[in-house]
Design brief:
- The protein is about 60% helix and about 10% strand.
- It folds into two domains: about 80 residues, Winged helix-like DNA-binding domain superfamily/Winged helix DNA-binding domain (Arc Repressor Mutant, subunit A), CATH 1.10.10.10; about 160 residues, Rossmann fold (3-Layer(aba) Sandwich), CATH 3.40.50.10490.
- A five-stranded parallel sheet has the order 2-1-3-4-5, with helices on both faces.
- It is elongated and about 60 Å long.
- It is an alpha/beta fold and about 250 residues long.
- Helix 2 crosses helix 5, helix 5 crosses helix 11 and helix 6 packs across helix 11.
């Protein structure tokens, strides 16, 4: 688990953020169990206030919170890798590193999403998560406006380090392919999630994740787990990104 990713994905008060950061810092340094009195002193809080914080977060007390964080810290990296290996048909270590490298390089750039139907809902989820994590993320509705602006100011606006996340089961959805081609025309990198590694979308992408791979994508059975798997893989990719950033610090 990474400090920043954990803090960004939970609604915590400033005192709670400081306490969580203190505890995880001690754990990651390999220190023996740190008592509540030490954590309270480090953060200029009372032990009673930390106990109240623990209960608000759903723990019986400080010991349970400490144990929970210890377990998460020790197991998250391996669990993330195993989950990705299980869900991504074309998984490779190089592919995950390429994702992390791209997202670090585009930290100050814009990120767009595109998808139709349920894929569009997944794209909206991406936007919310990326925004919370400090990226400038926009849905495909804003992408249309952005393209109009770029084309109206062709030659006067510097090319941006933008990324487009595209989601399509078949990899052949017309509007999605249209967005991707426009994005590539303007130098955007394409990260796609699809069920078909031989699809047009996959061929247009700089980085493609194949989930629940099939040769045909006629939806004839339930449950359809593709969209849920895309969100799960995206969450694991973001956890991997933030985890690698902290290890480098």
């Amino acid at each position: 688990m990474n400090h920043n990713y954990f803090l960004l994905t939970n609604l915590l008060s400033e005192d709670e953020r400081r306490v969580i950061t203190s505890i995880t810092s001690h754990i990651e340094r390999g220190e023996k169990r740190v008592g509540i009195q030490q954590i309270a002193a480090e953060n200029y809080l009372s032990a009673a206030s930390i106990v109240k914080m623990c209960k608000r977060l759903g723990f019986d007390g400080y010991s349970e919170l400490y144990y929970h964080l210890s377990r998460q810290l020790l197991s998250t990296d391996s669990r993330t890798e195993e989950t990705l290996k299980c869900l991504v048909d074309n998984y490779s270590d190089g592919q995950i590193e390429a994702f992390r490298t791209l997202m670090r390089a585009r930290r100050q750039g814009k990120i767009f999403t595109t998808g139709e139907g349920f894929s569009n809902i997944v794209g909206d989820y991406f936007v919310q998560r990326l925004s919370i994590c400090g990226y400038m993320a926009f849905s495909n509705v804003h992408f249309y406006d952005y393209m109009i602006f770029q084309e109206a100011h062709q030659g006067t606006v510097e090319a941006e380090n933008a990324v487009m996340f595209a989601v399509s089961q078949s990899g052949e959805t017309g509007p999605v392919l249209n967005d991707v081609r426009h994005a590539k025309k303007h130098g955007h990198k394409i990260v796609s999630f699809t069920r078909r590694g031989d699809s047009t979308l996959a061929q247009l992408s700089d980085l493609v994740f194949v989930l629940d791979g099939v040769k045909q994508t006629l939806a004839v059975s339930l449950p359809n787990l593709f969209f849920g798997h895309v969100i799960l893989v995206f969450e694991e990719l973001m956890a991997s990104l933030f985890g690698s950033e902290e290890q480098a610090q």
